[in-house]
Amino acid sequence: MGLRSITRRYSKYFIDKIEIDLEKDAPLNLNDIMMMINDFNLPKLYIVIDEYDNFSNQLITSNRQF
User: Fold this and answer.
1) Whole-angstrom Cα Rg for the chain
2) Which of 20, 24, 27, 41 could make an SS bond with 4 (beta carbons 3.0 to 4.6 A apart)?
3) What is the Cα–Cα distance from 28 to 25, expressed in whole angstroms?
4) What's the pLDDT score for residue 9?
5) Phi, psi for residue 41 in degrees, rounded to 5
6) pLDDT for 9-50, tens place per residue?
7) DSSP class of residue 47?
């Protein structure tokens, strides 16, 4: 789920005060979201980083065979 999707899905919590800026890097937009969560004492946001394909990507980029 992308940052824009999170702010739309949970818009009742963000009070329409946050806008994802496509000119910013994702970490800066995420920081804005986290600051709003902290400032307004909103429910915690859990972030799951999916790296299930990291092993195969490492093999591909290193030209090794499994």
Assistant:
1) 17
2) 20
3) 5
4) 81
5) 50, 50
6) 877 777 666 677 778 888 888 888 888 888 888 888 888 777
7) -
| Structure-token pair, residue 60 | 């591909």
What is the number of residues in the chain?
66
Amino acid 9 reads R
What are the tokens at 65?
Answer: 């065979």
Contact (Cβ atoms closer than 8 angstroms) between residue 18 and residue 32: yes
Token pair belonging to 36: 């709003």
Q: Distance between CA 10 and CA 62 in Å, rounded? A: 41
- In sequence order, which residues have a C-beta less than 8 Å from that of residue 34 and are 6 or more positions away? 45
Residue with tokens 């994802």: 20
57 C-beta neighbours (distance < 10 Å), count = 10
What is the structure's pLDDT at 52? Answer: 74
Amino acid at 54: N
